[in-house]
Design brief:
The protein is an alpha+beta fold. The protein is built from eleven helices and eight strands. Strands 1, 2, 3, 4, 5, 6, 7 and 8 form an eight-stranded mixed sheet that branches.
Length: 331
């Protein structure tokens, strides 16, 4: 029978003498591997009597545990020594500046929409939302990728009783693609339904909004008669601007720029939504978020907004901590 004390001394000596992790692993395999010296002793237990097996089994297991513990301790010591040696040989200058990483920013369209929502919220409007993909009934008959956010107005009139005062911000989809149109663009539409509503209320609402949005009292507007199937009378609203020098400047100059469509809600629309037009009247309007952002922040081409050019976004983007509100400033 192998002298367990002698075997233990030999294995522990080999563990202590291992100069690196590779040598230590060789010692582990020689002692604890399938054909290792200690593993071989366990295979002899089957030929022993029950009394011997009990005594020798406990002794061999103790030897195996001692060897495994010594190997684990030696491995930790070698890994620590290896790390210390590497740190001592490498130079780390903590005074060197970290490489610049550009912070993300809020997209101008989202910033513009948040500004518009903030203004209308302080004017008493609630925000209503609806699905991007809508059915023909809501998209066309009562007023599939929706072509306008008017579908939200329809859903609101059919689900709520007057008085109603809501805006409907969201994405819309049309087959357009040029410097001032994109296939996917963003709208904010508004709807007010109450007793005694007239064009004067519509005019005041829009003029007040534009003055606060462009942050100037010099905004001059005009209404032009137009036709929209869901409003009567209908109008387009123009804003006075200066187009000289390749820029559009709001509040100066002698040119006019169409900026939104609006009108009084058609009585037939009210009837179709279960609202008595003899008791309630209303107005509606719709404006392009992307175009308003272009005008306010001097962006020359609407298509650049969705070009995924990080340089463009770095130039026109907004800080994520600059949440707009009409009270403390919009941008």
């Amino acid at each position: 029978m192998t002298d367990l004390k002698t075997l233990e001394s030999d294995v522990l000596a080999q563990v202590a003498a291992a100069a690196d992790l590779s040598a230590l692993d060789a010692v582990r395999v020689a002692a604890l591997g399938k054909t290792g010296s200690i593993s071989g002793l366990l295979k002899t237990l089957g030929a022993m009597s029950p009394e011997e097996r009990k005594t020798q089994g406990a002794a061999i297991n103790a030897l195996r545990d001692a060897a495994a513990t010594a190997i684990a301790d030696r491995k930790a010591a070698l890994e620590t020594a290896e790390l210390d040696a590497r740190l001592a040989s490498e130079t780390l200058d903590l005074t060197l500046p970290a490489p610049y990483r550009r912070k993300g920013s809020v997209h101008p369209t989202m910033q513009t929409m948040d500004e518009m929502v903030a203004i209308f919220a302080e004017m008493g409007f609630a925000v209503a939302e609806g699905p991007d993909i809508d059915d023909d009934f809501h998209n066309f008959e009562r007023m599939l990728l929706r072509t306008h956010t008017s579908t939200v107005q329809v859903r609101t009139m059919m689900s709520q009783k007057p008085p109603i005062r809501i805006i409907a911000p969201g994405r819309t989809y049309r087959c357009d693609n040029d410097a001032t149109h994109t296939p996917v663009f963003h709208q904010v539409e508004g709807l007010v339904i109450d007793k005694g509503i007239h064009m004067g209320h519509l005019k005041w609402t829009l003029e007040t909004f534009l003055a606060r949005f462009f942050e100037t009292d010099a905004v001059t507007t005009q209404f032009r008669p137009h036709h929209f199937p869901f409003t009567e009378p209908s109008a387009e609203m123009d804003v006075q601007c200066d187009r000289s020098g390749g820029e559009i400047k709001i509040g100066q100059g002698t040119s006019w720029l169409e900026i939104l469509g609006c009108g009084m809600v058609h009585p037939n629309v009210l009837r179709a939504c279960g609202i008595d037009p003899d008791e309630y009247q209303g107005f509606a309007f719709g404006m392009g978020v992307d175009r308003l952002g272009m005008l306010k922040y001097g962006m020359p081409d609407l298509r650049d907004m969705w070009s995924s050019d990080s340089r463009w976004l770095a130039h026109y983007g907004f800080s994520a901590f600059a949440a707009p509100n009409a009270a403390s400033g919009l941008s």
